[in-house]
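Much of what follows relies on a compact textual record of a protein's fold. Think of the row as the fold of the chain written in a discrete alphabet. An example makes this concrete, so a full record is given next.


***
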Amino acid sequence: LAVGAYSPLRGFMGRKDYAAVLRKSRLSNGLLWSIPVVLSVSEDEAKKHRSGDDVALLDETGRALGILALTETFSPSKEEEARFVYGTTDEKHPGVAAVYGRGNVNLAGEVEVFDLPGPREFVAYRITPSESRRRFAELGWRTVVGFQTRNPVHRAHEHILRCALEVVDGLFLHPLVGATKEDDVPAAVRMRCYETLLKNYFPAGRTLLAVNPANMHYAGPREALFHALVRKNYGCTHFIVGRDHAGVGNYYGPYDAQKIFSNFAPDELDITPLFFDNAFWCRRCAGMSSEKTCPHAPEDRLFLSGSRLREMLQRGERPPAEFSRPEVIDILLESFSKQTRS
């Protein structure tokens, strides 16, 4: 909210915007927005504040970060939010569990921010949308593809990134470094992997690495649209949507996150989604491929995924070069070895 990544939002949603986002993936004024941005508090906390109040927003240490100009309070329907946004009311879904764990009252209003939360990791990679747009212009990029990830980039991802770079001027690698699932690779480890991969396997001047400090929702199709809208604010003209984007478990179909974009006109999206099939290593092709380009049988194909990569690392097993670049594997093995010893 402070830096404009959630534009056109200028604060926490009121009742009308909240209801419109749940049912239509739009704000009450019709603009696209697919996930509620709310400030939930306990009923006791809500009783302390009235419409028209300036409410101080503090971090865990009591340091003031900003002021909420309170316009209304309302009680959200958590079950409805879970059903519309996540497609399930199952509390085993991490996003649904987070919704149910919030306070029962939402405070709404515009926010004036005068400091950002700290401590701030990856300071060199924390750039605002205005800064990213300026850097794209300095690099001479007229078309930029954004890539959202919460995993180390394995060979399937790398294949997709290379394909995208064939049709645009630059790649904006924008990993999410907020809260994710406990078994996800820590952000600090992932950042080392991204730095190493870009340095050794991508051309200089065609990539920009920055961090997205937001949390993961695991909302599948709704979050794919949300991720695209945020990257549009950062100046991207294109956005990669792969298989099971922002998915978790078996809650969504493998390409549901791509199908949601057909519900909206290109001019209102104002960012072009690039859809990719599941990529794999084909032993007979001796390289990365997909159903669209490979004629060989399933037994010739090695399917790659972040979860499978983590399973191998947790067993202390070195994944083959078909899974990821050796420099990246070295970083991951070192990290998992330290976790096992601790």
Remarks:
- Residues 326-341 form the longest helix (16 residues).
- The mean pLDDT is 93.
